[in-house]
Amino acid sequence: MKKCILLFMLCLGPVLVSRAQAVCYDDHFTAERLRIDLVFTGNAHMQDVFLLSMHSETPWAGSKTQLIAPFTYGEYQYKVFSQEGELLFSKGFNSLFMEWRTTREALERDMAFNTSVWIPYPKDTVLLEIYERIQREGTYRPLKRFRIDPDDCLISKEKPAFSPEVFQKNGPVENKVDLLFVAEGYRLEELEKFRKDAARFTEYLFEHEPFRSRRDDFNVWMLPLVSEDSGPDIPRIGLWNQTVLGSAFHTFYIERYLTAPDYRLLANAVSGSPFDAIYVIVNTKKYGGGGIYNYYGLSMSDHQTCKEVFVHEFGHSFAGLADEYYDSEVAYIDMYPLDVEPWEPNITTQVDFGSKWQDMMDAEGVGLFEGAAYMTKGMYRPAKDCRMHSNRAPGFCPVCQRAINRVIDYYTK
Question: At a CB cut-off of 8 Å and minimum separation 6, what does 11 contact?
Fold first, then answer.
């Protein structure tokens, strides 16, 4: 008789230790994908995470040979262990909740944000462990551990409501970077505009190195979602639209910060689509956007700087690149302690510069330029200008290009 209990929470004992051996995908996972919906709660001083639901989805699109991430990017990590303690899968990510915790609002109130993570569908019972990064130490500690039974009858197997369209197909999903463009704020009669916008954004990306040289490593998909109204919410002028993903400006009370705060709307929408990277195109001329590592990238469709903003935000969401500017309005407080090396590959406090681009200091244009990550002193970027620094830069600097190449390799080799 199948269990009807969705998942057991286990006490957080010592962190499980993985065996030093390669993981064979077929030994542990089926061809499908498992989505795990989580709710993060807390404030600036504390946080917790709880299970919301689980869903069996379309076939797994990620690598079947590199199941354990080769780099520790992200403010969070999630790891999948066998019951015997073998590490089977790992990945890092950021979230809108993580960003909110660094705002002044988080000093005064509690909030909850939903987030989803995806793993290959396990054949046997596994343990999912969520880790949080301790800013003051630069290390990770367990936040919560869950037991997942793949035969649990409450794992949803609903048919996906939306199907993607192929724009560029260069090979099997498990051997390519699958980039999924998602429509937001497009009415039914505007879907052809979305297809043209997605095609335009695709060309924007492949104008820049290293994407230009590695175009054959990408599949590109389009998800033409229909909204009742055109364009996102603009709260400060009282404009509230009915859109499929609920996108809105004024995130964290910053006018230009455009996001889709209810992540579960997006997770449900993409349940039938292959993806390694999600990018939401919002049907608006108003300037704004955001990019969150292994979460989503999102920006406006029609502003005069939409190319520059898209490529910049994709650098965040796909490769974990940090902002290299320091002279713009942000809501964050003490996001980077200067006595800890940040995890992002394109900024450094020089605490552990050897792990960053010290080996590239002889490359043309590469150096240590003070001012990055919203800080004028004590934080350094690798180039005077770069796509992660300003909209004027022609492209990514050599350090950012290497970081992007490493992520492409992770999905394709």
Answer: 145
CA atoms within 13 A on the CB side of 294: 22
Which residues of the chain form CATH 3.40.390.10? 165-323+402-412
Residue written as tokens 């964050």?
332
Dist CA 363 CA 123 (whole Å):
47
Question: Which class for 339: exposed (0-12), middle (13-18), buried (19 or more C-beta within 10 A)?
Answer: exposed
What's the pLDDT at 327?
A: 76
Domain 165-323+402-412 sits in CATH at 3.40.390.10
Span(s) in the chain for CATH 2.60.40.3250: 7-148
Cα–Cα distance, 282 to 289 (Å, whole number): 9
> Cα-atom radius of gyration of the chain, to the nearest Å?
21
What is the tens place of the pLDDT at every residue in 176-216?
A: 999 999 999 999 999 999 999 999 999 999 999 999 999 99
7-148 CATH fold? Immunoglobulin-like (2.60.40)
Which parts of 235-359 are beta strand (E)? 277-282, 289-292, 296-300
Alpha helix positions (H), 212-361? 263-269, 306-319
pLDDT of residue 335: 74
| Backbone φ, ψ for residue 168 (5° rounding) | -145, 120
